[in-house]
Amino acid sequence: MENTDLLAIAKEHGSPVYVYDSSKITSQYNRLFNAFKKVKQVKLNYAVKALSNLSILKLMKSLGAGLDTVSIQEVRLGLLAGVAPKDIVFTPNGVSLEEIEEVAAMGVQINIDNLSILEQFGTKHPNIPVCIRINPHVMAGGNSKISVGHIDSKFGISIHQIPHILRIVENTGMKINGVHMHTGSDILDVDVFLYASEILFDTAKHFKDLDFIDFGSGFKVPYKEGDIETNIEIFGEKLSKRFNDFCKEYGKQLTLGFEPGKFLVSESGYFLAKVNVVKQTTSTVFAGIDSGFNHLIRPMFYNAHHEIINVSNPTGKERFYSVVGYICETDTFATNRRINEITEGDIIAFKNAGAYCFSMASNYNSRYRPAEVLWHNKKAHLIRKRETFEDLLHNQVTTDIFSKETEKA
Ligand SMILES: Cc1ncc(COP(=O)(O)O)c(C=O)c1O
Q1: What does the subunit section of this Swiss-Prot or TrEMBL entry state (predicted)?
Q2: 328 catalytic, yes or no?
């Protein structure tokens, strides 16, 4: 997108505002799909948690993607977007048996990640095939919060518990139709993916009724100019060959699945905010914007890097700034960043704002969550209105108990 497009959107829809470029989502989807073109059956299930706006889900459906979901609410959003239940996988962690049963009754593919629920579900519903999420005991991921496949992680059933899984399957008569793993996010090294994939292939050999193998996600995307990213093409080439060989050994054409979030939407997103104040202190120059970690928490939560550009003054002299929010805790987006000279009132854009940005936004400090705009065919489409004061009050129940107590006193 051009700076002028972003500025026009900020002018029309106000700030702060999230903007997503549909053409980037489409090209990323095609890139990943094409990397596995040598495999007969491939299914990419978009991880809804990354960005769950209905228009984004509809775009994914139009591209041929299914959905990966973690809550019954995400499943309902997917169904509302027109995605068929058979194209949705439910991969929750630590949710109740009741929620899993409710989702299964909708016809959605269930993925179970602990033995207790597997045994209970298999006993009650032996005729509903389920996928199992294994924990491959691989330490991978950009930081500890997003490394989820290691031995201390709460996710998945340990590969050392396969005998126990088999006992449950035999005793209940249930059918395992898929095996799955997800080792973490922001994984750069193709060899780490391939190493973990071998563990999944070893697991798959134990189950005779498989329809698919789901390799999860975690591909690293670039966050700045010249940044490194997972080499999807090389990974595709290597895993496709290994997968096709495995299918031959297994004696059946299986579907190869992934559930990417960040890879599909991260780079499509821009978060636009206005600089309210430029504050020179004894040690630094702060650019204080009309937002905070209530709208974009990744820098504070994960130390995530988001490139920041001054779209109002893209050719101005570069200076160093610490970009901070308006929240009542220290909410620093970036420290000592080289940015084209900022004047109060300028619109700045955070890049890579498609994944885990709006979807992690909150109303902290009683602020409204921002609007969302989809840039499609060179036109801006509002896909979520900015919240209003009424939205903050929506579920509050007003009571007059205190006025009655005052009257009595
Ligand atoms: C089970 C599962 N699948 C897929 C994803 C998406 O990962 P990414 O955004 O790195 O592609 C996640 C992310 O948390 C996840 O937990």
Answers
A1: Homodimer.
A2: yes
Q: Do 339 and 312 contact (CB within 8 A), yes or no?
A: no
Reduced to 3 DSSP states, what percent helix, strand and coil does the chain have, rounded to the nearest 5?
35, 25, 40
**Tens digits of residue pLDDT in 46-103:** 999 999 999 999 999 999 999 999 999 999 999 999 999 999 999 999 999 999 999 9
Question: CATH 2.40.37.10 residue ranges in the chain?
Answer: 266-393
Cβ proximity of 140 and 196 under 8 Å: yes
**Protein residue whose Cα sits closest to atom 1 of ligand 1:** 182
Q: Look at residue 67 and give its three-state secondary structure.
A: strand
Annotated binding site for substrate: 298, 302, 329, 356
Topology of 22-261 in CATH?
TIM Barrel (3.20.20)
Residue bearing the CA closest to ligand 1, atom 16: 182
What is the pTM assigned to this prediction?
A: 0.95
Q: Which CATH topology does 266-393 take?
A: Lyase, Ornithine Decarboxylase; Chain A, domain 1 (2.40.37)
372 forms beta bridges with 18, 384
Show the tokens assigned to 284.
Answer: 């630094």
